[in-house]
Amino acid sequence: MAQQAVEGAARAQWASVFREDLFEGQAGLVTGGGTGIGFAIAFELLTLGADVLITSRNEDRLAEAAATLRKAFPERKVEYFVCNIRDDKEVAAMITNVLERFGRLNFVVNCAGGQYPAPASAITNNGFRTVVDLNLNGTFAVCREAFDQYMFDHGGNIVNIIATYHNGFPMMAHTGAARAAVANLTETLALEWAAYGVRVNSVAPGNIYSESSKLHYRTKGNFLGDDPIAAAAPFIPCKRIGSTQEVSGLVCFLLSPAASYVTGVTARIDGGATLMSNASYVLCDVDNYPKYGELPPEEDTRAVFEAAAQAKLLESKL
């Protein structure tokens, strides 16, 4: 329970920017709600008056997270349900369980997912399929069941948490492909389900700090040192990483009436990192890349780059 205690304690001093009754009388589902971004989203939804059911595959982690949330919000309904979103039957049972407990399902936040850093050449077919199955197929299954069992008749809101895949995703080819597919899925569902009063959007977080992400990417094999999330900060225009609360605030906006005319979008929350090519991958020196046509001598090109770099450095000091 240590991880949830740390994350819960960190939020005890934090208040949402939205009014406290924004989601009063509503109920939501947050997959992957036991840790990190998912936990932060569940926390803010409860802060704003909603009842929430969180899910993941790890029952111990879910129980600990639910206990932390219930302690913080004794007046709210906080439930959890163990579910592997790769299993269609479990997903159907999960949606049924939400409706049995709350009688409604006003919004769904798909935050469940997973991946591991590895060069594309080292990812096996099975590893690739597993990550795609979880991040893409699992997300689709949750969206479809929520629509079929409730939102077809009552409308609702869906937010899919993806990632900033936009300039390629080195060391994450499997999840980059899956997340890009979810962005397109978001647009398709927004079109098909608009007539039923269902809005569907995506949020693409960049480098976001949480205890769980720091632990995961440190132990699963990293490529940016001991703390790969924080190591990206110098390459981000804002010169810092983001917080889970910043992500949850954006999600709550998209779920709110203020976003009633917003559907089918992918909102990036990355401190401008995707404007700077890829903020988490440093290219090695290359001397064997094929060339075609007339190019200036390499030493002249390097001189131009060095002059530009010096000018940029001077500009930053002014």
TrEMBL record:
| GO MF terms held by the record | trans-2-enoyl-CoA reductase (NADPH) activity
| Highest taxon listed in the record's lineage | Eukaryota
| Keyword set, alphabetical order | Fatty acid biosynthesis, Fatty acid metabolism, Lipid biosynthesis, Lipid metabolism, NADP, Oxidoreductase, Peroxisome, Phosphoprotein
**Any keyword Oxidoreductase?**
yes
Annotated Gene Ontology cellular components are: peroxisome
Listed GO biological process terms: fatty acid biosynthetic process; phytol metabolic process
Q: Does the keyword Metal-binding apply?
A: no
Q: Which InterPro entries match?
A: NAD(P)-bd_dom_sf (IPR036291), Peroxisomal_t2-enoyl-CoA_red (IPR052388), SDR_fam (IPR002347)
Pathway assignment reads: Lipid metabolism
Subcellular localization is given as:
Peroxisome
Q: Give me the reactions it catalyses.
A: (2E)-tetradecenoyl-CoA + NADPH + H(+) = tetradecanoyl-CoA + NADP(+); (2E)-octenoyl-CoA + NADPH + H(+) = octanoyl-CoA + NADP(+); a (2E)-enoyl-CoA + NADPH + H(+) = a 2,3-saturated acyl-CoA + NADP(+); (2E)-dodecenoyl-CoA + NADPH + H(+) = dodecanoyl-CoA + NADP(+)
> Which EC numbers characterise this protein's activity in its record?
1.3.1.38
Where would you say this protein principally sits, based on its record? other
According to its UniProt entry, the function of this protein is described as:
Participates in chain elongation of fatty acids. Catalyzes the reduction of trans-2-enoyl-CoAs of varying chain lengths from 6:1 to 16:1, having maximum activity with 10:1 CoA. Has no 2,4-dienoyl-CoA reductase activity.
Oligomer status and interactors: Interacts with PEX5, probably required to target it into peroxisomes.
Q: What is this protein called?
A: Peroxisomal trans-2-enoyl-CoA reductase
